[in-house]
Amino acid sequence: xxxxxxxTYTFRPVLLDVADPKTTTSLKPGEQVRVINLPSAxxxxxxxxxxxxxxxxxFLGMVCTNSLSSKKQEQxxxxxxxx
Length: 83
Hints:
Blueprint: E1 8-11, H1 15-19, H2 21-24, E2 32-36, E3 49-54, E4 59-64, E5 68-69, H3 71-82
Antiparallel strand pairs: 1-2, 1-5, 2-3, 3-4
């Protein structure tokens, strides 16, 4: 999935992020996060990765872009689970 900088997403970890304990220790599934670009670091979507921060601005680390769900995807997920 391609993500946009400064947009908020819901964190739903894929296996790559579950296996990497550096990020998942401070981040729980279902949390809202914001995608950011850091100076002197690869831009978001490079090699399917991006840097994220919490909504209040604390840096959380680098995650796989497939671990992030947009609001529209979350809404579709809820509708399917209610059927």
